[in-house]
Structure formats: C-alpha cells, structure tokens
UniProtKB/TrEMBL annotation:
GO BP terms: chromatin remodeling; regulation of DNA-templated transcription
Taxonomic source organism: Schizosaccharomyces cryophilus (strain OY26 / ATCC MYA-4695 / CBS 11777 / NBRC 106824 / NRRL Y48691)
Limits of the Chromo domain: 17-70
Name of this chain's protein: Chromatin modification-related protein EAF3
Superkingdom, taxonomy of origin: Eukaryota
Length: 337
C-alpha cells in the first residue's frame, strides 16, 4: 500500500497508533519509505518509517487506535495499582519499626528526550559544585546501581503510552556542533541505511576514562573526587543498560544482536563509541527523573555531563567517525529494506 505527501494517516510509534501526516516520500527498488510528522508533536519527532508502520485513515483503523490505547491505559493502571499496593506495604513496615527501603520513584512531568533549550541556570550548577558548603557527599549509590537503572528504563518504557511525551524536568545543554552531528548521524542511519563499524575505538569506556583523567586533577578535595568518580562509574552502567532499549535506531538493532552473539560477555561500553554515548547524554534527563537523586546531586551530575560534552567537542576528531559503512545486501534483507 502506498501513501501520498500530505496524506492524513495513522502511524505506529511504540505500541500505539497516532494521527500523523506524510510530509515526504522516498522510493527504493521494491518499496518506499515515508517521512512522518505526528500531529501536535515537535518536528524533532519526525521520522522515516516503512509502510508496515502506517495505516490508512479510516473508521476501521481509528477503531483499532482506540482499542490499542484502551489496552495500554488498562495495563498502565494495573501497574500503578500494583506499585501503590507495594508502597502501602512499605509504609506499614516503617510504622511497625521494620527497616524498609524506599521503592517509589520521583514523579515527573515529562519523558521526552531533547537537545533544545537551556538547562537550569548555569550559575546554580556552578554554585552547587564550587560552593564552600559541601557538594552532595555522594551521588546516591542506588541511583547509579544496575537495579536503579533497570527501574528507570522500565519506567520510561511504561510511559510510552502517553499521547505525546512531555518535556523532562531537567535538560542537558548539548553544544551546537554535536546537535548538528546528531542530525547527520540520524540521516546516515535512517535515510542512507548506513552503519557505524563495530567495535569502535576509542570505546565508550575509553572516552569516559580519558575525560576522567583530564578532569580529576582539578578537583580540590576528597568529597569532590568521590562524587565525580561515582558519576563516571554510573555513566558506564547507564550506557550498558540503555543501549539496547533506548539508544538504537531500528536499522541498527540487527547489528546490535550480531555484536552480542559475536562478543558474548563483553559489555557494550567496550564495543560502542562516542557516537552512541552522546545519544545517552540527550536521553539522560528523562532517566534521571525516575531516580531518587536529590536536586543538588542532579545538578552536579548534569554539570559533569555538560563538561564531558565540551570535552568531546574539543576532541571530536579523535572520538567521532568521519565515514559510515554501507550495510551489506544480506544485512538489508534481514532488516527487510
């Protein structure tokens, strides 16, 4: 089935169908791809999709849209009820004097990643890091543990049933040069069907280690060093946990599966490079909203992330590829393009 430019359609995004419009088409040998704009969503959510994700705008498909939404909302309500019951049990335990561990997540007003706008006042972050009063004595260990990251990723995935992902509470200021690089990266992979050759060198772990080495000598006391070390260790955990769930384009998923088979037991931060690391950085605010980190710790962590991004800009020739590889015919056939 084919679609025309400006045609009103329904398009799958995750498990749900959304009203959308076809704004461009690209014909290939045996099929076409379509550039989709979701009604009411920012242009940054526009994406190229195959015909398998698009449905005609008609009564039958509109009924399917409503059924999918009802099913998703019912599942979300059931999950919320389960969490509420667990929270009540936790409170009973506290009242009876038992040692219990908080299990609730921070509420949040948003779940979408963003590369636009400014963070909170930079001066506030600088003050949090440089004040004579102590910076957070720790970036809470549970906030960067594998269990906490798993919980944050799961929470973000559950919120995919919302009509339009709202903006996150926190933002990371991405340098303009990296914003442009991210756009080019998207075009290479989703439009030109190219891939980043793996394994990458330097790897994500190597990039983190290099930034740590460049920064740590400027820290003046043990508290600052401890906070910084925890933040850097947390980045590797977040990357390993988020890569397969959040950081890959559809065209890259087969490559990811092949890498996992070829390098069993190897962490993904030792396979992938800075190209995927900056995708994590722009996704980090929505993950942080689902941790129990206090605002001072968050400002401190995001301050380090922004310094890391500036470091990558200064060393972009070392960390970013200048040539993508064309996917093989066999790979394309596996993807179905």
């Amino acid at each position: 089935m084919s679609y025309k430019v400006n045609e009103r359609v329904l398009c799958f995004h995750g498990p749900l169908l959304y009203e959308a419009k076809v704004i461009d088409t690209e014909k290939k040998e045996d099929s076409s791809t379509y550039l989709i704009h979701y009604r009411g969503w920012k242009n940054s959510w526009d994406e190229w999709v195959g015909p398998d994700r698009i449905l005609k705008w008609n009564d039958e498909n509109l009924k399917t849209q409503k059924e999918l939404k009802s099913t998703a909302l019912a599942a979300k309500q059931k999950s919320a009820a389960t969490k509420k019951a667990a929270s009540s049990t936790n409170k009973v335990g506290e009242a009876s004097g038992q040692a219990t561990k908080p299990i609730g997540k921070r509420s949040r007003e948003s779940s979408a990643t963003t590369m636009e706008g400014e963070s909170r006042e930079t001066s506030q972050r600088a003050k949090a890091q440089k004040s004579a009063s102590p910076v957070p004595h720790v970036i809470k260990n549970e906030a960067v543990s594998e269990a906490a990251v798993d919980a944050a990723v799961k929470a973000v995935e559950e919120e995919s049933v919302d009509e339009e992902p709202p903006l996150p509470k926190h933002k990371v200021r991405v340098p303009d040069v990296l914003k442009l690089w991210l756009v080019d990266d998207w075009e290479h992979i989703t439009k030109h069907l190219q891939l980043i050759s793996l394994p990458r060198k330097p790897t994500v772990r190597a990039a983190i280690a290099a930034f740590r080495e460049s920064k740590i000598s400027s820290l003046t006391n043990e508290v600052d060093v401890d906070v910084f070390e925890q933040a850097m260790a947390g980045l590797a955990i977040y990357f390993n946990k988020c890569l397969g769930n959040m950081l890959l384009y559809r065209f890259e998923r087969q490559q990811y599966l092949e890498v996992r088979r070829e390098y069993p037991g190897v962490e993904m931060c030792d396979i992938y490079g800075a190209e995927h690391l900056i995708r994590l950085f722009v996704s980090l605010p929505e993950l942080i909203d689902h941790t129990n980190m206090d605002s001072q710790s968050i400002d401190c962590l995001l301050g380090y992330i922004e310094e890391f991004l500036q470091y990558l800009v200064q060393h972009k020739d070392e960390y970013f590829i200048n040539k993508y590889q064309d996917a093989s015919p066999n790979y394309r056939s596996l993807i179905g393009v």
